[in-house]
Amino acid sequence: MEIKQMVEAIVREMLSQQVKRPKVLYLFYDSTSHEAFTDHFIALNIHGIDHDLMFLDGEASCWLGKHKIECGGRGRTIASDEFAPAPIEVPLAYEGVVIPEIDLDNAARAALGMKGTIVSEIIFSTLVQNKFVLIGEDISGLKKADRRTLQALTLPTAYRNLFDYYKMELQMYGVEFAPTKELAEKVVGKIRNEKAEADLKAELEPSLPGKSEISAQPTSALVYEGKLISAEWVTREIRNLSFRSLQISSQTIISALAHDMLKDRGITIEYIAER
Q: Could you tell me the superkingdom of the organism this chain comes from (predicted)?
């Protein structure tokens, strides 16, 4: 039976190398929590997204010391191994990390930029790489082990307020919170949006190296009187017009992708005074 499983794993690995699929990491505090997320994994697979599972059973395993971490393969668990990548390197192989439940201690460490636990190091590493971190928002702030030991389901009011503060801090750094039941849906949406943005940028690349539509026939500044500049508007305008600067009102909102597209093509943004 073990040989059969090994052969199956090898075949799956070979197939996955032929068609690379995006992959996310689900991080759990114990090795039974993932059972409630079976529907999540099915939904991800339907949308062409792979996942790996990482388990941290108990406080002792939250810090592995000299021991390091490796993945057993697509859809399998993370195992401890002294020759595998360190915790901070784990997010390199993933599009993002999903943490269905986080506790007060790890939220505090991550919010303050402190290391020392696998959770805080993974959050730090993922955000530094500009990848997404999704955390369940309907959580108590107590790990399952703590709830079981203390026979308590929620934090006291003072600690709850502190926990909410750390959650707010994490959002400032780029962490996103969503209802636990919607985490898989959120992952699908984020990966789809990232792929759409990448495809759009590739589509807008100039056909000839070193030349672009803007620099080929530069004209005077373009005045925009609307309230929102979207990526779709930029795409349409640079195909039809060539301009070096864009004049807008101080009240006009520019989407992040639109701003990057203008910057990439050397188009400056000028704010004009309201009349």
A: Bacteria
